[in-house]
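Page 37, continued from 36.
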């Protein structure tokens, strides 16, 4: 099986993790194992890597590329189950955790996976290849529910018009393919708007992918577990690809680094709270050269937090 994927912010992410040769590291979204292979280059024979992915196609490639390395444990699961995964392996704390929240090139370029509006395919979008599909969502959700999904997860200005057009269309026949949905979206958007801002279906497809895979829920529920699973001196590095994800990560990391919570009018601190983490840097964006070589990196943002103390 071909699994083409260019790892985004590869060396910046490895540097952010500040890898200890004998440490334990987790790649929560291993995909094509690009980041994982670089982590392994920095580990001694005593180091360990837990490679997680929910996509069965990715698991096959991970096993093929790094599964034979005695330092590697491959796990098919969603990273939202991180704490359960570590507990099942008898691991309390780790020294670094990486999550690349982007859709892999393999998923985008494999037409039958249904992630892209450029090719006709079943409207699927499931990263795990299990559960409810994007087609199930557009054919069963109410107009109000669809409007909310498109507005909240796609930041789509014409969410209501698009949702209404979907409901009207599905009364005649079920919406089954990516191109059928893309045409329905295009019809709902004013002609003047269609001529600017990229493909008119882009934001709705993003919203459906997020809803299908519960992406924002996964990261918002799990980022705290990631931080809590670190040894002191360990780091979490997360790569996001749109503002909704980045906002969640940014706020969570800031909360880990917050200290005194006393009212500003107090002359001295009485709460005694000190930060549990610190930010090695604010954020890292792809270089112009990387964007030139890999257009899919253009919206990536890397953030990192280090644990500096245990919980109070």
């Amino acid at each position: 099986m071909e699994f083409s994927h260019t790892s985004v912010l590869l060396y910046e992410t490895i540097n952010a993790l500040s890898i200890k040769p004998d440490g334990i590291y987790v790649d929560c979204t291993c995909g094509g194992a690009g980041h994982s292979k670089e982590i392994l280059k920095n580990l001694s024979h005593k180091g360990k890597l837990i490679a997680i992915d929910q996509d069965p196609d990715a698991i096959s490639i991970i096993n093929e590329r790094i599964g034979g390395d005695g330092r590697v444990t491959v796990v098919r699961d969603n990273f939202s189950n991180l704490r359960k995964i570590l507990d099942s392996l008898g691991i309390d704390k780790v020294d670094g955790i990486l999550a690349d929240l982007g859709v892999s090139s393999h998923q985008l370029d494999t037409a039958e996976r249904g992630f892209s509006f450029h090719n006709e395919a079943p409207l699927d979008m499931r990263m795990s290849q299990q559960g409810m599909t994007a087609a199930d969502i557009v054919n069963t959700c109410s107009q109000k529910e669809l409007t909310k999904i498109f507005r909240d997860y796609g930041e789509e200005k014409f969410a209501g018009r698009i949702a209404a057009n979907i409901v009207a269309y599905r009364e005649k026949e079920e919406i089954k393919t990516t191109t059928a949905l893309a045409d329905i979206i295009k019809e709902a958007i004013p002609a003047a708007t269609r001529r600017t801002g990229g493909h008119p279906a882009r934001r709705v497809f993003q919203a459906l992918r997020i809803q299908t895979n519960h992406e924002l829920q996964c990261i918002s529920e799990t980022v705290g577990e990631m931080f809590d699973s670190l040894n002191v001196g360990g780091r979490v590095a997360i790569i996001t690809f749109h503002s909704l994800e980045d906002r969640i990560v940014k706020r969570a990391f800031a909360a880990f680094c917050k200290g005194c919570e006393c009212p500003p009018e107090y002359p001295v601190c009485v709460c005694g709270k000190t930060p549990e983490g610190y930010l090695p840097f604010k954020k890292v964006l792809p270089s112009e050269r990387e964007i030139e070589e890999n257009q899919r990196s253009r919206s990536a943002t890397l953030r990192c937090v280090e644990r500096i103390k245990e919980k109070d």
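Residues 215-228 form the longest helix (14 residues). Flag for discussion at group meeting. The chain has a mean pLDDT of 93.
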